[in-house]
TrEMBL record:
<keyword id="KW-0808">Transferase</keyword>
<dbReference type="Pfam" id="PF00583">
    <property type="entry name" value="Acetyltransf_1"/>
</dbReference>
<dbReference type="InterPro" id="IPR050832">
    <property type="entry name" value="Bact_Acetyltransf"/>
</dbReference>
<keyword id="KW-0012">Acyltransferase</keyword>
<dbReference type="InterPro" id="IPR016181">
    <property type="entry name" value="Acyl_CoA_acyltransferase"/>
</dbReference>
<dbReference type="InterPro" id="IPR000182">
    <property type="entry name" value="GNAT_dom"/>
</dbReference>
<protein>
    <submittedName>
        <fullName>GNAT family N-acetyltransferase</fullName>
    </submittedName>
</protein>
<feature type="domain" description="N-acetyltransferase">
    <location>
        <begin position="21"/>
        <end position="174"/>
    </location>
</feature>
Length: 179
């Protein structure tokens, strides 16, 4: 399975339950729906709709799964990937344990998925998230996270209904160098 290591040290839990890390390794993994359920529950500000959560947990049973695990093997972050066409990979869900937000786990998963995508000849990464016309401050940070990794806003749509503006973001990928 592909692995991407980030420079730095190891990962572990502090006495307060926060996860400290300067290095996460993200890799493709087997489905982990129980871990997805656990991680969604740590972030009710982002995942407060039981119906949506149930859909994510069901999707996690079959969709391509990438994880970050801590030194003890516990899942700290999960990303599910859709492949609509050979040239595109969509981030269907990405979630990091609330205690590990901001420690690089989300970036490690995007980096691993992108490196794998380039190897496969994928030309576009896609993600859908809550759009900027909604005032939610948590999702403003989520959009910043994607923009920092190079995603560009493409279009805000009412795909999810008028009360839930959907921002489609894409990141063009350079073709893998040929030798
Ligand atoms: C969005 C998410 C996957 C990012 O993963 P992460 O491991 O927390 O983020 P990283 O440490 O790799 O990256 C840090 C960057 O992301 C930003 N960020 C976005 N959301 C954040 C959050 N909830 N907590 C901390 N940093 C966050 C930080 O501001 C930082 O950028 P900066 O250094 O310019 O300030 C994770 O915070 C999360 O699960 N959030 C809630 C669920 C969510 O939004 N999922 C995506 C739905 S489309």
């Amino acid at each position: 399975m592909p692995r991407v290591d980030r420079p730095g040290g190891g990962a572990g839990h502090t006495a307060q339950g926060e996860v400290r890390a300067t290095c996460w390794t993200a890799a493709q993994d087997h489905p982990v729906p129980d871990d997805v359920a656990r991680l969604l529950a740590t972030g009710p500000e982002w995942f407060g709709q039981p119906d949506s959560n149930a859909e994510y947990i069901e999707a996690a049973q079959t969709k391509e799964t990438w994880t970050v695990r801590d030194d003890g093997g516990s899942v700290v972050g999960v990303t599910l990937v859709d492949r609509h066409f050979p040239h595109v990979a969509e981030i269907h869900l990405t979630v990091v344990d609330r205690a590990a937000h901001g420690s690089g786990a989300g970036t490690a998963m995007l980096a691993a998925i992108e490196a794998d995508a380039v190897r496969r000849g994928v030309r576009l990464l896609e993600v859908k998230t809550l759009g900027p016309s909604h005032p939610d401050s948590g999702y403003a940070r989520t959009r910043h996270f994607y923009e920092k990794w190079g995603f560009l806003p493409l279009e805000e749509t009412d795909l999810w209904g008028e009360a839930t503006p959907c921002l489609i973001m894409v990141k063009p990928l350079a073709p893998a160098p040929s030798c």
